[in-house]
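Hello,

Our lab assistant flagged a job as stuck in the queue for most of the afternoon. It eventually completed. Since we weren't sure the result was trustworthy after the delay, we are filing this so someone can double-check. Below is the sequence as submitted and the structure that was eventually returned. Let us know if re-running is recommended.
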Amino acid sequence: MIQVDYYTGTADKLSIACRLCTKAVQQMQRMLILSDDSLQLTQLDKLLWTFSSVSFVPHCFVDSKLSSVTPVVLGYPSHLYPESLDYTILLSFHDEVLPYYQRFNRVIEIVDHTPADREKARKRYRIYQAQGCHIRHHSLDS
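-- returned structure --
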């Protein structure tokens, strides 16, 4: 059964993503992060190098020659070949449920405070629920 974790109520999706990437690397799991927003991926790329003063998260983009040996890989959903996916965790910033999400053991969704983001997340939640995924909710509201 696929585990779907919703992290809701954050003001800063990218900081949460960095924390989750750090945890995945510490647990020796491979994570794929997907977004259609090139600015978001560029900001996340920079933040993964700098968000901690004592460490960094090894990462690269999916088109890098090192992507097969790097624990965290960033990319665009349209640039992937689902049959080549070799990751345990999918962190999706996509507005829709990706059709190949079932190739992962775990899917992570990070939801901010905006009504539009919450509504899109609710639609994805219903799809995951209807498909029998085990869903956990982590509230980040303070």
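-- support follow-up --
The delay was a queue issue, not a problem with the job. The result is valid. The CA atoms of residues 32 and 73 lie 5 Å apart. The domain at 3-139 is CATH 3.40.50.10110 (Rossmann fold).
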